[in-house]
Design a protein that fits this description.
heterodimer, A: mainly alpha, ABC transporter involved in vitamin B12 uptake, BtuC, globular, B: alpha/beta, Rossmann fold, 2 domains, six-stranded mixed β-sheet, three-stranded antiparallel β-sheet
Chain lengths: ~290, ~260
Amino acid sequence: METLLEPLSYAFFQKGLLVASLSGGLLGLIGVYIVLRGMSYIGHGLAHSIFGGFAAMQLFAAKFYAIGAGLWGIASALAITAVTKRSRVGADAAIGVITIASFALGVALFAKFGSSGPSFDNALFGSILGISYGQIVGLIAVTVLTASFVFLRYRALLFSTFDPDVAAVSGVNVGRIEAALMVVLSLAILATLTVIGVTLVAAMLVIPAVIARMLTDSFGRMLAYSTLIGTLCGLVGMYSSYYADVPSGTMIVLVGAALFIIVLASTGGRGSRRSAGLDRHPEEIVTK
Amino acid sequence: MTGTGVGPELIRLSGVDASYDHHLVLEDVSFHVHEDQFTGIVGPSGAGKTTLLRLLLQTLNPVAGTVWRAPDLRVGYVPQLESVNWNFPITVFECVLMSRKSSRIRSWASAPEKASVSAVLERLGIGDLGERHIRELSGGQQQRMFLARALLRQPQVLLLDEPTSGVDISTRHDILHLLADLHEDGMAIVLTTHDLNGIATHLPHLVCVNNRIVGEGTPSEVMTSAVLERTFGARMEVLEHLGVRLVVDEAPATYTPGSRI
């Protein structure tokens, strides 16, 4: 017990524990919708996309790189939704094209004008212990916003994820709810990228949701389990990183991966059957 | 069973063209749905049956012509089972509950809303399956679940896309009787089917579609060799047995051992 309480005597660890559990829970919650919509790749894609915004902000106001990167990420997410809806391009291909083009633009801007602001490494790999008070407030605000969005728009989000055609007939504004989801997702990625690093954000968007899917056949329970699992990964990952002296973001993801293996082994065929085809999203009815 | 549509008009398509990616699927279609209508849309694959339903649902905009719907019309829709993601984590109860009319701020269902879901599940004979995952149901039970989801909104018009596709004969009868009961209760029903003998011949009103409306009327008016040939592009013979029309392929190929088909 004393071993568990010992790191809590450090202020930096208390702050890290709060931020890691909030980030895990937040990504676990929003990740359910991303995984069930067959958009697991979007976390990875937006990480690259945000790089473009970060680089562009170096030219104008390096201090506000987070705002620029966030706006850039939101614009990319909305562009992905628009391209997927209005053409025959699938979500995975749209994510690939738009976000990697944005990444290339960022590289070009860096090469031409260089960097005058904070290191991009911070945004890329995260620095949970060096997180500022403002960033904690931002993370709490985004967590509250995301939880409120899911809570208040539960039916519309579920309906448009499961069956967008019938949702539209049943009074759900599918286009608006998808756009709102993309905005919330971008904000969640932005708020957590400086905590566990944007490259690891992609993993934490997917792992808790997939584990939760293996544990239940109910949507409501999957949402609750995924949030709890994300939070647990944050807590256990922080403790593990303290004792193993390994970066916290890495440990959070490794804890998630270990939990995934344990659940997969203990649920056997039932778990893998449930998680099979998670990337299959409702198709447009094309039967003539 | 009446159902040819003489009551107040609910939906009207006038001279409608519809296309996907500039490929015209329906041309110059005029179609009306009335309050007491029970209509089957028949036609071969690719004829535009689902497209016609999507125009009625207003999930597809016509490229020409007009679509009119009665103000505040409540429409229920039962999709093709093939279009459903059966691996989605959702129980039968959750699936039906998602279609509730909710203008309230809080997102969880109230006790009366849950009671109304239970009531509609009971009415359709699947009241004890609420906690099951949707994949664990039989084909007939899956149809009933989506019917329950549509009925929860107390629709004036019920649109069904191939409701008997992939179900056995007994289930097909059950579904047809269920729809007849709903129609008796005052609900307008429009369904698509390619099952001429199992479904279409038992309906009061048929519309034959093959990229345009080829024929419209009661089965005795529409199920003729001439209309069916124009609809399906194949020669068909129509027999009458106990007052019911039956369609057979003309000169069907038969196989006997040792012979070539």
